[in-house]
Amino acid sequence: MRVFLDSIGCKLNQSEIEKYAAQFHEAGHDLVGTLDMADVYVLNTCAVTAAASSDSRQKLRQAVHRNPDIQIIATGCLVSLDDSIAQIIPQIKRIVPNEIKDNLVKDFLGELPDLEYYERQSIPGSRRRTRAFIKIQDGCDNHCTFCITRLARGSSRSVNPNLILGDIQGALIGGAKEIVLTGVHLASYGVDMKPGGSLSSLLQQLLAILPRDIRVRVSSLEPWDLTPDFFDLWKDTRLCPHFHLPLQSGSDAVLHRMARKVTTSEYKRLVGELLLRVPDAAITTDIIVGFPGETDTEFNETVEFVRSIPFAGGHVFSFSAREGTGAARMPDQIHGKIKRIRSGILRNVMAELTRNYQMKFLGETLQVLWESSRKVGKGFLLSGHTPNYMRVDALNIQPMRNQYSLVRIDKINENSCEGTLITQVMRE
């Protein structure tokens, strides 16, 4: 059987399809890179915004149009919130809500090989990556008024450390050079476990067994669950100095309406403690503009607060009302035109901050993990990321992928940096 896997949305969705790929392969099935080659199409959908929901539906319809005989398995947040989609697209043979998606492949095939771990497979097509996304936590117990994820993914629950270690072992055997730990609310890892655990203790376990040539990246961390001593772990250079700390607003009044568990002063204090311990850390964030009731004054507070933090980058989203959330029922919804204007202003600010951060490394030599290479003239254009998640492009006479090099940063562009490859290296 030939299987095409695809995903929309977050790194957690990506980690799940990587697990599916390993399971299908170990069960003797072929992974293919296009829909027209596939017998089965598995889509991990997203519903975090109206646009993501629309993209998910469109992908399902496109699959039917391109391959009318294909069997479709739809999972993820969209189908967990709206299983009526199967009535619209009859080719969907299975709807797998989030609460049972970890067993998707086993339930579909009837059984799986009884293995200690499943060797990671590179997913053909656009999903082919050097980094391995490892799910360590799912669900959320917070009640942010704008967020649909808690409804779609349920309460917070941590993955057993032994299962995590097995997934990582499979990733390493499969050739991964970077491990990315993912979850909905990563900083809450271990709170639901008996005896209790923590993200800090899990990281210490991983660092104790990981080879020296493997780096570890931690994805999004809600800022209210972190203490300053957490950042002391980054003395180990295998931990990538990149911290994504969602802010959502720089106005305390808006944060209160969002039911966020942090104030601007607490956020700024945490960033200060982080930079004391990891001085060159890249700090990125998420900002929502046009939240219900956001006044000009509140928006300007956000702009000024964002400017006061040395962000290395961030995502700016226009508020999207999601049915079932508290914010969707709030008065004073903001007009789309105003949201577009505010989004443009804040995107420009974030671009300026990104450039300021990257300029600090102009002329410096950084380690890059190459993720892709394409033919350019008589050579190849390599592209990859530094530990602090700066994207770097460099020319080389040979293609390179899933390898480390030292690169001198020569130029800062809008979307990436240009560099000169110094040497291929292994981490000490």
Question: What features would you describe in this structure?
Answer:
With 428 residues, the protein is of the alpha/beta class. The protein has three domains: 2-109, Rossmann fold (3-Layer(aba) Sandwich); 125-359, pyruvate-formate lyase- activating enzyme (Alpha-Beta Horseshoe), CATH 3.80.30.20; 365-425, OB fold (Dihydrolipoamide Acetyltransferase, E2P), CATH 2.40.50. 32% of the residues lie in helices and 24% in strands. The chain contains twelve helices and 18 strands. The protein has helices at 11-26, 50-66, 77-81, 85-88, 104-109, 149-153, 161-173, 199-209, 252-258, 264-277, 296-308, 336-359; strands at residues 2-7, 30-31, 40-45, 71-76, 92-96, 131-135, 137-138, 157-158, 178-182, 215-218, 242-244, 282-289, 313-318, 365-376, 379-385, 391-396, 404-412, 417-425. The strands form five sheets. The protein has a five-stranded parallel sheet with strand order 2-1-3-4-5, sandwiched between helices. A five-stranded mixed β-barrel has the order 14-15-16-18-17. It has a three-stranded parallel sheet with strand order 6-9-10. Helix 11 runs parallel beside helix 12. The longest helix is centred in the C-terminal third of the chain and has 24 residues, at 336-359. It is globular and about 55 Å long. The two termini are 43 Å apart.
